[in-house]
Design a protein that fits this description.
This protein is mostly helical. The chain has helices at residues 3-17, 26-34, 38-65, 68-87, 92-110, 112-123, 130-158, 162-179, 195-208, 211-240, 248-265, 275-294, 299-327, 333-362, 364-389.
Length: 397
């Protein structure tokens, strides 16, 4: 296998799949083209998450038994098809169907892209580089979203459909890059069990196989489902401040750049702060972000939501993926990684429904206050669980 070529192609499709030009203007797009508000948009996001709950682990299993590069390419092309459906959507139902198609594509890619990177490095006996390269990969994604977000914001002012057209073109090129990958070598034992039983067994191992692995999967679900709410709250927050829509891309780009920077340097914290302390600091920062943004909405809130929507994810995600890769063998790796994504989406569905309802009836600032309360409750529960799991939880990769 040509490791350098694979790494370049991984970079190429990472860049393309993060050129989501429509991302900073999705809420205005739903309002202007489809005629629905933020609560309906969050319902669409819940449908997207529900699709991933149904598909994430089965598609991870498919990635473990098929060639990973073909699964990755199929996922990317499916996402492109979903964005194409959204381009022609003129009703809420059509928008939900489009979100569901995108969800299937994301499910196919969610564990596969990380597994391809880890196994490409493993084949060349360079797996120690994984944490750094995974952080770099996430950083590239944030930087690309930042640039495409700026372009998408101004493109939306010119033509509301143009950001989607650019997104579809970028994903199509990314799918072609994925097809050019060399399939990483891996040990793939014969499947002795029925596929459904095999999937259930892998989910069970991901949640109960070791104290550290199970705790990290559950904590990641609580954290990433909540930071996704923070990310999507930015656009209604901009509407509250009456910021021109052409600047949404610029503002979100700043947040993505900060998220990329945090991913780039996340490996530098290894050995300098224990998981327990990192957990406490992360939750306190999230609470402060929500309370600070809700208090007298203004530009300070814009800055805080940028940090909460991208930076925390950028710092935490490489660590979460590294723990899963370290605990799970190749034959189950994509399934286990997809289990982590499934947990995030499963928690996001009810959380988004509740927060979307609060935003509709009481405003985005009230939603942020309730989100702060959510962080406080989950932080206490996870802290108590971490104390029970010591000393296993103090291990650092």
């Amino acid at each position: 296998m040509r490791i350098k070529r694979n790494l370049r192609l991984i970079d190429a499709y990472t860049l393309g799949t993060n050129m989501i030009f429509v991302l900073p203007v999705l809420v205005p797009y739903y309002r202007d083209q489809i005629g629905v508000g933020f609560q309906a948009f969050m319902t669409g996001e819940a449908a997207f998450a529900a699709t991933m709950v149904l598909c994430d682990v089965p598609t991870g299993w498919i990635s473990d038994v098929w060639q990973r590069k073909h699964v990755e390419a199929l996922g990317i092309f499916t996402e492109a098809a979903g964005f194409t459906a959204l381009l022609f959507a003129h009703s809420f139902i059509m928008a939900v169907i489009s979100q569901a198609i995108i969800g299937v594509g994301v499910s196919l890619c969610s564990g596969t892209n990380t597994a391809i990177l880890y196994e490409s490095l493993l084949t060349a006996d360079r797996q120690r580089e994984y944490r750094k390269r995974e952080g770099r990969r996430l950083a590239m994604g944030f930087y690309t979203m930042a640039l495409s977000g700026v372009i998408g914001g101004f493109a939306y002012a010119f033509d509301r459909r143009l950001p989607l057209i650019l997104t579809i073109a970028a994903f199509t090129c990314s799918g072609c890059a994925a097809l050019l990958l060399d399939e990483p070598e891996r040990h793939r034992p014969a499947r002795a069990r029925h596929p459904v039983k095999d999937i259930v067994a892998t989910i069970g191992y991901a949640l109960r196989g070791s104290a550290e692995l199970g705790f990290v999967v559950i904590a990641a679900a609580a954290l990433f489902s909540s930071t996704k709410i923070i990310m999507w709250s930015q656009q209604p927050y901009y509407l509250l401040l009456r910021i021109p829509e052409s600047w949404y891309g610029v503002l979100m780009a700043v947040g993505f750049l900060l998220g990329g920077a945090s991913s780039h340097v996340s490996h530098l914290t290894d050995g300098k702060i224990g998981p327990g302390r990192a957990l406490a600091v992360t939750w306190l920062v999230c609470i402060a972000i929500c309370l600070g943004a809700a208090w007298h909405p203004g530009w300070h809130g814009v800055a805080l939501l940028m940090l909460g929507g991208s930076c925390i994810f950028g710092m935490a995600m490489p660590y979460v993926n590294e723990v899963i890769n370290r605990h799970v063998e190749s034959s189950r790796r994509a399934t286990a990684l997809s289990t982590q994504n499934l947990m995030v989406k499963a928690l996001f569905i009810p959380l988004s429904a509740v927060m979307g309802g609060i935003a509709k009836h009481a405003g985005v600032t009230s939603m942020l206050l309730w989100l702060a309360l959510w962080f406080a409750v989950t932080g206490v529960l996870l802290g108590l669980a971490a104390l029970r799991l010591r000393p296993p939880m103090v291990a650092k990769p």
